[in-house]
Amino acid sequence: MQTHYSQLSDHLYVHHGHVNTGILRDDNRALLIDPSGLTLHTTLTELGITQVEQILCTHHHRDSTAGFPIPENVRVGVPAAEAQWFSEVETFWKDPKYRWHLYNCHPHNLMLANSIHVTDTYAEGAQFEWGSASIKVIETPGHTDGSVTYLIDVDDKRFAFTGDLIYDDGKLWELYSLQKGQQTTDYHGFLGARDELKESLEKVRQSSPTALVPTHGVVMENPDTAINKLFEQLDYCYDKYVSISALRHYFPQLFAEFEGRDDHMPIREGKPPPDFLRHFGTTWLIISENGEAFVMDCGSPNIIKQIQRLQADGEISEVTQFWVTHYHDDHVNAIPEFQETFPCETITDAIVTKVIANPKAFRLPCISPAVTRVDRATHDGDSWQWNEFKMTAYYFPGQTYYHGGLLVEGRGVRMFFAGDSFTMAGIDDYCSGNRNLLGKDVGYEKCLRLIQELKPTHIFNCHVDPAFDFTDKEIDFMLDTLAEREKCYTDLFPWDHANYGMDDQWVRCYPYEQEIAHGETVTLQVEITNHSSELRTATAQPILPTSWGIIEVDSAETTIPSKADGHIQFSIPIPQRSELEGYATPIGRIIIPIEMTYNDTPLGQFREAIFVLTGG
After folding, report:
1. CA 205 → CA 32, 154, 199, 210, 542, distances in Å?
2. C-alpha closest to that of 606 among 34, 33, 40, 62
3. Residues 395-430: pLDDT tens digits?
4. Residue 76 forms beta bridges with which residues?
5. E-strand stretches of 281-344
């Protein structure tokens, strides 16, 4: 029989499932740290443990806290700062602020599907004894705001159970949990929790542990080396982010420590836009020689009023076409009202269309519930004539994966409307949730190659009044930096490509949210992006509510080509009301976690979908 555990001392073991579970043993009794996954039962049986007395959780993420049935009468201890996300997690799933207009990433949506009973909460300095061990709690935020580390003194050694602060020497499990605002919202906080993370690891180091035991990762028997390597790698990776960050234009105070660096791209001067353009909020408007208007984006009703003023003043006659750059709420919130007011043709990229026409199907940063009617979905290179201007649409995965770009040629200029993808300082990749993929012909690499090819005279950002452009030298510098990022961020993670650690949508459910009714069969698709250079296999299984009785959906598998998307589709029967007699039937929002295995690596309850049960 294959052994799934290792022994750290006479009384302490670690079960190696999709996460590491600490097992503090006293004869046939056990205290468990971060128990998750059904294979844990095998290890407990092998060790002769028949009674689990206590459970400790380092942080609230579902992949380390779900999938192990908690026996009755077991004490469950959690970080005091995150107790709500264990015992009242429904408050997260039911609150619209955690579903729409997402500018803050804490807490992350990797939450429990259902609340669990909590008996104990721990804050900084809490201490207690269990068996022959002494346990001390230190607060170590970073991976989550309320994470704690448990210091276990047993058998004359000290072991630090650090949650997901660190994975291995110089490595993290993933980066997107570190998205956090410092002087701004989380949305603008790429790697913003790195200082907290470093402070927490320094605190762990000062406690002089014999070894670090992460929730995801390997046991580190030389904590100093592991921590030092991570600090060095994080600093290097962050520098490669700052050196071409567009955020330096918006918030220079965030990067004061980097001022004057000659190995960072200088910030360009802007240039005045042509006089036939108007800019209101996030909207650019082109006025043709015949007075017609071409409008891009509408995030606020004030934009509609501004356009009506232009009509009243005789500057424009009517709006005849409308282009949507990307799905973010400050660009689409008022589109339904705009479309009622100005009944013109709405055009956008086909990938953008998927989100703005059905926003409930997605969970993304800055997403709006506003539904947009799209009359024409474009693909790369589609062109059309609008009065004296030639319009050419492109898929443009810059600021976000779900983004289009528009080249407008006429009146002696070549204007490229890049949405929010660039400023004079570089690229707008300051939110990992936007899926800024690294690699050849994806993300900003694809966008910069296009700009290099098209050579626009003016580039426009929806938030910036002046136009700008980039020199060939600056484009080459950004491309070289992106290539180096692909290498250094890959080194930061235990994956064979950086995008697995940076793209929290590499596994996603479609539709993310859908309405269901008793007795119907619904379709749920798990979509997977293979970021590797080789074929990969994925297995998925939806975890249905226990109150649905014996209804289960078998796991399914798919093979995905290199650098491609694959999917696994499930048909899920929703029980009739009559089949649920004797069960407490969930009403309203039901969370469906997805148990995942990727290329033989179990990931636990890695993603989720939402079913909204109608009819009670």
Report:
1. 23, 18, 10, 10, 40
2. 62
3. 999 999 999 999 999 999 999 999 999 999 999 999
4. 55
5. 283-287, 293-296, 319-324
- Model confidence over 362-399: pLDDT tens digits? 999 999 999 999 999 999 999 999 999 999 999 999 99
Element spanning 556, H or E: strand 556-560
Q: Which helix (H) or strand (E) holds 476?
A: helix 472-492
SS3 label, residue 102: coil
Dist CA 306 CA 286 (whole Å): 14
Backbone angles phi, psi at 454, to 5 degrees: -80, -30
Cis-peptide, bond into residue 511, ω within 30° of zero: yes
- Per-residue buried b or exposed e for 351-372, using 16+ beta carbons within 10 Å of the residue's own CB: bbbbbbbbbbbbbbbbbbebeb
What span, in angstroms and rounded, lies between the C-alpha atoms of 354 and 374? Answer: 10
Q: Tell me, what DSSP letter sits at residue 123?
A: -
CB-CB neighbours of 285 under 10 Å: 21
Taking residue 114's Cβ as centre, other Cβ atoms within 10 Å add up to 16
**Which of 534, 470, 507 is CA-nearest to residue 596?**
507
| Paired residues of 34 in beta bridges | none
- 305: tokens are 């009023």
Tell me whether residue 341 is exposed, middle or buried, using C-beta atoms within 10 angstroms of its C-beta: 0 to 12, 13 to 18, 19 or more: middle
Smallest CA-to-CA distance from 248 within 236, 237, 261, 235 is with: 261
pLDDT at 199: 98
C-alpha triplet 462, 467, 470: angle, nearest 5°: 110
DSSP type of residue 271: B
The reported pLDDT for the residue numbered 615 is 67
Contacts of 305 (CB under 8 A, 6+ apart): none
* Antiparallel, parallel or unpaired: β 556-560 and 536-542: antiparallel
Token duo for residue 196: 């907290």
CA gap 301, 547 in Å, rounded? 45
Please check whether residue 19 is in contact with residue 8, taking contact to mean a CB–CB distance below 8 angstroms.
no
**CA gap 82, 567 in Å, rounded:** 34
The residue ranges of the chain whose pLDDT is under 50 are: 1, 616
pTM recorded for the entire structure = 0.95
Q: Are 296 and 325 in contact (CB under 8 A)?
A: yes
Structure confidence at residue 1 (pLDDT): 40
Tally of CA atoms within 13 A in the half-sphere of 509 that contains its CB: 25
DSSP category for residue 143? S
Which letter, b or e, does each residue of 560-582 get, where b requires 16 or more Cβ atoms within 10 Å of its Cβ? beebeebebebebebbeeebbee
